[in-house]
Write a structure and sequence with these properties.
The protein has 691 residues and is mainly α. It folds into four domains: 62 residues, Alpha-Beta Plaits; 287 residues, no CATH class; 41 residues, no CATH class; 270 residues, Helix Hairpins. Helix content is 62%, strand content 6%. It has 18 helices and eleven strands. The strands form four sheets. It has a four-stranded parallel sheet with strand order 6-5-8-9, sandwiched between helices. Strands 7-11-10 form a three-stranded parallel sheet, sandwiched between helices. Strands 1-4 form a two-stranded antiparallel ribbon. Helix 9 links the parallel strand 8 and strand 9. The structure holds iron/sulfur cluster (SF4) (3 copies). One iron/sulfur cluster binds next to helix 16 and helix 17. GO terms for molecular function: 4 iron, 4 sulfur cluster binding; metal ion binding; transmembrane signaling receptor activity. One of its GO terms (cellular component) is plasma membrane.
Length: 691
């Protein structure tokens, strides 16, 4: 039969730390050969130790809680049996849980503690009937699986009776026919119970208390809203302690006090498996106890993997169960509806009903043991070459190096997960890395030496160029100063010329003004001359008329004879005078015309001169503006040149700083070169030491 899966790993969360291997009592059920661990279901005994050990919370229980709720919702008829650990998990509300279970459709709820009472009776019956030397109690399904799968030699000592849960289920099937159509769901503290349920077929659902609680929280169910409800079926007495380490012992000695010293109570995965392995030897040696009251979990079922009580102190858990025990004993005495325990045990007892047979499942483990040669080969792969390399440090999760080697041999792990392997590998890598480092250091040092030499040469060249640059700068500076002086001289000359032009402009304006006055005077003269010319014409006309009159007077005088002789003389004189006057007037008129012509020429020339003067004034004005512009440009040039000079001075200072820095760098380069040479010698020495 294929073993049910009890534990699952969330690969997303698993960081391959192998803490789970470390706590796993059988180890072969965890495949640690990959990047994530995997559980091999057919080898897992369901002890649940790996769940709290996994700090990544990558591990969780596989149970039937989801199927239980789903089937209930589909009206599948069911009864529930509740393990004694219920008091440790639900504290004072353990009876209220019955109310909740019935509210969701569970037809009846039975107390597994009574199954534990039946179990104790089965043991004592077997002891009385068969008189075995040693009985290994088997309430713990993980331990039963261990015996079946890993140490079948122990099967002969396992009590051939059902666990308390299976006792309860068998009792229901036998004595409660009204529930014969019901499936049985176990409210359980344990992962491994699923195995015995599947093996016997008596119980259908393993509903772990932790998942039940989670589901109730999801459904926002609070037990405080339910009333406590009595269990259906018979009630137990002190077997309610079965979930507590030593609970079986306390129950058994109630009925057989004489066997008290012969009961060994033992729990906890760190010791219980080694102890069980020793039982056959102890039986041979006649030192084995009569009953081994053993549990896988240190806190018993009260802290089982299905309770979620990993972090609860054992005393708190036991106090809760003890409180319940006292309440049960009180109620048994007080409640007339409860049958006395003996009556119930008798009523629900049937010989053979609770017997259990075990199957040797060791064949499915298929774990091979390497021979000496194979082991040595694996050790070689693990980089273990001497006894000193066998650290047995448990870092791999196995207790010994041989355990790890066997796991590797069976494909369950790989050498890279061994602490020693990693250490040696790291040392080898370190050595190789150091050698590589030394080589590359030496080569880098060589390169650095060349670089420094090149740098030194370049810095020297730079210094030389810097010197030349400095000279050029200084020369430029001097030339700039000379340029400034020249510009200033040109500027003052230009200013002088500008002033001259300005004066010329003023003079030209004055000349133009004088010229206009002259023009006006000439015009006046021309006008006056024209008037004179008119008068001369009149004189000439008068002279001509006078001449004509004088000629007529002479003719008349001639007619008058002697008496007219004197008059004729006067008339001739007047005629001569008028002729002269006419000639003179003509001559004057001619002269005046020439004068007028000359004045016209003068006027025309003066007009041209005025135009020329106007043009000249405009040119002088333009020239003056140009000179002003030139002067302004000179000022600008002078200002900029001064700035340039100041920049050149700053450049000169920078060049000076650069030179002194360069000299300092060259000095540093020299000392660094010496240092690198020392380093090179050290690296050579280190390399030869490595080799
Ligand atoms: S439940 Fe137990 S046996 Fe199974 S893997 Fe975890 S530690 Fe190992
Ligand atoms: S304990 Fe196991 S399952 Fe959890 S992280 Fe480590 S290797 Fe993975
Ligand atoms: S030395 Fe390696 S193989 Fe040995 S116990 Fe430590 S981790 Fe495991």
């Amino acid at each position: 039969m294929e073993n049910a899966k009890l534990i699952q790993v969330d690969e997303e969360k698993c960081n391959n730390c192998h803490s789970c291997i470390s706590v796993c009592p059988v180890k072969t059920c965890i495949d640690g050969s990959g990047d994530k661990v995997a559980v091999i279901a057919e080898r897992c005994i369901g002890c649940g130790q790996c769940i709290p050990a996994c700090k990544q919370q990558a591990r969780s229980i596989v149970d039937d809680t989801a199927a239980f709720f789903k089937d209930l919702s589909e009206n599948v008829p069911m009864v529930a049996i509740v393990a004694p650990a219920v008091a440790a998990v639900f504290d004072d509300s353990w009876l209220k849980l019955n109310g909740y279970l019935k509210s969701i459709g569970v037809k009846a709820v039975f107390d597994v503690s009574f199954g534990a009472e039946l179990t104790a009776k089965s043991y004592l019956d077997y002891a009385k009937r068969e008189k075995p030397k040693t009985i290994i109690a088997q309430p713990c399904a993980a331990l039963v699986s261990y015996c079946q799968m890993y140490n079948p030699e122990l099967l002969q000592y396992l009590a051939p009776a059902h666990s308390p849960m299976l006792h309860t289920a068998a009792m229901i099937r036998e004595f409660f026919p009204e529930y014969k159509n019901c499936r049985i769901a176990a409210i359980s503290p344990c992962t491994s119970k699923k195995r015995e349920f599947e093996e016997t077929g008596l119980i259908r659902y393993n509903v772990t208390m932790i998942h039940l609680k989670e589901e109730m929280e999801k459904r926002k169910v609070s037990l405080s809203s339910f009333s406590p409800l009595e269990y259906d079926g018979p009630r137990a007495e002190r077997a309610v302690l079965f979930s507590t380490p030593g609970g079986l012992k306390e129950t058994v000695i109630r009925d057989a006090p004489d066997i008290t010293p012969k009961i060994r109570r033992i729990e906890g995965p760190e010791i219980v498996y080694d102890y069980l392995n020793e039982i056959p030897r102890m039986v041979e040696e006649n030192v084995a106890p009569f009953i081994v009251d053993c549990l896988n979990c240190s806190a018993g079922c009260n802290g089982g993997p299905g309770t979620g009580n990993y972090n609860q102190p054992i005393d708190r858990l036991e106090a809760r169960v003890e409180k319940r025990k006292k309440a049960e004993i009180r109620e048994n005495k007080r409640n007339p509806l409860r049958n006395p325990l003996k009556t119930s045990l008798k009523k629900f007892w049937k010989p053979g009903l609770y017997n259990r047979n075990y199957v040797d499942l060791s064949g499915q483990i298929a774990f091979r043991t390497p021979n000496k040669t194979e082991l040595e080969e694996i050790y070689r792969m693990m980089k273990k070459h001497s006894q000193e390399d066998m650290l047995n440090c448990s870092a791999c999760g196995y207790f010994t190096c041989q355990g790890m080697a066997e796991a590797i041999y069976n494909g369950l792990n790989r050498p890279e997960n061994c602490h020693q392997y990693l250490k040696v590998d790291a040392e080898e890598n370190l050595r190789e890395g150091a050698a590589n480092l030394a080589n590359s250091l030496i080569s880098e040092i060589e390169k650095s030496k060349h670089m420094f030499e090149e740098l030194h040469t370049k810095m020297s060249q730079f210094l030389e160029i810097n010197g030349r640059q400095d000279d050029a700068l200084r020369k430029s500076n001097m030339e700039m100063e000379e340029l400034i002086r020249n510009i200033q001289a040109v500027s003052s000359l230009t200013e002088e010329k500008r002033r001259d032009i300005d004066n010329l402009g003023h003079a030209a304006i004055q000349v133009k003004k004088d010229m206009q006055d002259l023009l006006k005077s000439l015009s006046d003269v021309e006008h006056a001359t024209n008037n004179i010319a008119g008068i001369a014409d009149i004189i000439e006309d008068v002279a001509s008329s006078t001449n004509l009159l004088a000629m007529n007077a002479a003719i008349e005088a001639a007619h008058a004879g002697n008496s007219g002789r004197g008059f004729a003389v006067v008339a001739n004189e007047i005629r001569g005078l008028s002729g002269t006057t006419g000639k003179n007037a003509g001559s004057i008129t001619q002269n005046i015309k020439e004068i007028i012509s000359q004045i016209g020429t003068s006027l025309s020339l003066s007009g041209k001169t005025d135009t020329v003067m106007t043009d000249m004034i405009s040119s002088v004005d333009t020239a003056e503006k140009s000179f002003s512009e030139i002067l302004k440009s000179h000022t600008d040039i002078a200002d900029r040149t001064k700035l340039l000079t100041s920049d050149l001075n700053a450049l000169d200072a920078t060049a000076e700083t650069l030179r002194s820095s360069s000299q300092a760098i060259i000095a540093e380069l020299d000392s660094m070169k010496t240092l690198i040479e020392t380093l090179g010698t050290a690296a050579d020495a280190a390399k030869s030491q490595q080799l």
